[in-house]
Write a structure and sequence with these properties.
The chain is built from 17 helices and 16 strands. With 457 residues, it is of the alpha/beta class. The strands form 4 sheets. A 6-stranded parallel beta sheet has the order 6-7-5-8-9-10, with helices on both faces. It has a 6-stranded mixed beta sheet with strand order 11-12-16-13-14-15, with helices on both faces. It has a two-stranded parallel sheet with strand order 1-2.
Length: 457
């Protein structure tokens, strides 16, 4: 249910077709839109298609439904499958059910920080195997879930007992873990903030209910690592913690480490990764080298280039006001080259970092989130704001004394930003809204377009 364009849906379809499954692929998009994916499936004779619609009869008398992320909670088609006692599966959770015994899943979720934390954990574990011949023979490390564009299910062809797979899991994928009543043996929960309120119809409790599948079904001997900001949510929930619980704190990051990614929020991400490393008994020396050589993930405070002394950053994955706020604060942290945590914290409290050197490009599709806190703090960091016209942007109300521009295209936004910027300023593209609309396929496409525009300057 949901083929998509050359992504995880396609990977799942190819894997199942090659396994000999009798497949129905159903997608609300039409044949023309899905042409690139359909071309990849042309050789398989065991697939039939329902495109440009869903049909109730396709959801009856099947072995299971493999559901794509984002299918509505009240989908009548999923309800039809449940009515006929057809199991509902998702890519990552089906992998977890079918993987060989002895494989360890490190699952990472959170409203913010899960991608960076997942990538860093994978780098640390991979560094560990490379540095020890014995360990390299004992296990291999894979990554999956949201961190990669490929499907997780095909990894069943590769993984063996004692291997480790690090999965980035969003709330939709965790719906599959709920249905299967399983959780990763090592679970990491970075943060819990408002997001996806339109999908969850304003019910943050329902959103948290999906997220908590990361640990709800753990057993004795499993491990939950909680970021310090999410620990309270877990503590006040009615979900019992069946495994061991460790709260990761920024103070876990040694103050003499050279941290290459800016921001207090990234210290929280690194702290979570450090606790995973401790669980696998990886030496501090290996962890430090992995952290200090870590490169920013594309689209997450990604440095693109410097033009006439102006640094330009792509933060397209900031699809919430909290994420954009973290980006603004993080770029203020760049003045602290010695990475002293105490000084950095005091600076935030006293507003010492108020350089007002950022030109912020933001705007996008409405997600129903409260923008008040972001709007109130923007003047602390920014000298100008450039808004990309979209459904969410049009609802914003500013009472600032500095320039605010509205533009119809991303290219026009960048052009205006470069016109305003002076040497030593920063241009930050951090939308604070979703990407869905007339201009972009998703936030990754949005970021790709931004980078292409900047590289053409």
């Amino acid at each position: 249910m949901g083929l998509g364009l050359l992504g995880r849906g396609l990977g799942d379809a190819i894997f199942l077709a090659e396994c000999g499954a009798d497949l129905i692929i159903t997608d609300l998009r039409d044949e023309k839109t899905l042409a690139p994916s359909l071309a990849k499936l042309k050789k398989y004779r065991n697939i039939r298609y329902t495109l440009d619609e869903h049909k109730l009869e396709d959801f009856r008398q099947r072995d299971f439904i493999l559901k794509a992320a984002g299918v509505p909670l009240d989908s009548p088609y999923i309800a039809e499958a449940i009515k006929y006692k057809v199991p509902i599966e998702m890519d990552a959770s089906l992998f977890a059910k079918l993987m060989p015994k002895g494989v360890t899943i490190v699952g990472v979720t959170g409203t913010r920080g899960k991608s960076t934390t997942t990538a860093l954990i994978h780098k640390i574990l991979s560094s560990f195997t490379k540095r020890s011949t014995l360990n390299a023979k004992r296990f291999r490390v894979y990554k999956g879930g949201n961190l990669v564009p490929e499907a997780t299910l095909p990894l069943l062809k590769k993984v063996k007992a004692s291997d480790i797979i690090v999965l980035e899991l969003d709330s939709w994928q965790l719906q599959g873990f709920h249905d299967a009543k399983i959780s990763p043996q090592v679970a990491v929960f970075t943060t819990f903030l408002d997001d996806h309120l339109i999908y969850y119809k304003g019910d943050t409790g329902r959103y948290f209910e999906d997220k908590i599948a990361i640990c709800k079904y753990q057993k004795s001997g499993d491990l939950l690592i909680a970021g310090e900001r999410v620990a309270e949510h877990i503590g006040t929930s009615e979900v019992p913690v069946n495994g061991d619980l460790v709260v990761a704190q920024k103070d876990d990051v040694p103050s003499d480490w050279n941290i290459p990614i800016p921001g207090e929020h990234n210290l929280e991400n690194i702290a979570c990764a450090i606790q995973v490393a401790k669980h696998f008994k990886i030496s501090a020396n290996i962890v430090q080298k992995a952290v200090e050589s870590f490169k920013t993930i594309p689209g997450r405070l990604e440095y693109v280039r410097t033009v006439r002394g102006v640094k330009i950053y792509n933060d397209t994955n900031a699809t919430t006001p909290d994420a954009t706020l973290a980006g603004l604060r993080a770029l203020g942290d760049l003045g602290f080259k010695n990475n002293d945590l105490r000084k950095r914290t005091l600076a935030h409290k006293s507003k010492i970092i108020n350089h007002k050197s950022i030109i912020l490009i933001m705007g996008g599709t409405d997600k129903g989130l409260d923008m008040g806190k972001l709007i109130a703090e923007i003047p602390t960091h920014c000298k100008a704001v450039i808004l990309l016209r979209e459904t969410g942007t049009e609802k914003l109300i500013f009472n600032y004394q500095f320039p605010i521009f509205k533009k119809d295209t991303l290219k026009e936004c960048v052009k205006e930003a470069t016109k305003i910027a002076k040497k030593d300023d920063i241009i930050l593209f951090s939308p604070a809204f979703a990407s869905f609309g007339k201009w972009f396929k998703n936030e990754y496409d949005r970021g790709r377009q931004f980078v292409e525009i900047v590289k053409s300057l």
